[in-house]
Design goal:
- By secondary structure, this protein is an all-beta fold.
- It has one domain (9-84).
- 0% of the residues lie in helices and 56% in strands.
- A hairpin with a 5-residue loop joins β3 (37-39) and β4.
- The model has no long low-confidence stretch (mean pLDDT 86).
């Protein structure tokens, strides 16, 4: 809820672990509901072709570093191209969340 995710996005796991220099880190693993469809640039709903692993740094939570991990879905568009879908928490090609 704190991330503002909407279906088909969901938090699949959270891990609170020791990071570098004995700091604590929160790692949130985000995914999509199985058999989800995403619109291509023409608005045609396309099934997930494959995924690509990505990591973003999020705002610190209670002074602990927070990271979002996601197997970002890629779709095959109606035109035959394979493209990654836009994730709601980041700008394209950014290593940080919007916040």
């Amino acid at each position: 809820m704190a991330l503002g995710l909407e279906l088909p996005w969901q938090v699949n796991d959270s891990v609170f672990a020791a990071g570098e220099c004995t700091s604590q880190e929160l790692h949130l693993h985000v995914g999509v509901i199985r058999d989800s469809f995403f619109p291509d640039e023409r608005g045609v709903l396309c099934p997930v072709h494959d995924t690509v692993e990505r990591v973003w740094q999020h705002l610190n939570i209670f002074e602990h570093n927070c990271f979002l991990h996601c197997a970002v879905p890629r779709i095959k568009t109606a035109g035959g191209q394979v493209v990654a879908v836009d994730v709601p928490w980041s700008r394209p090609d950014s290593g940080f969340t919007l916040i």
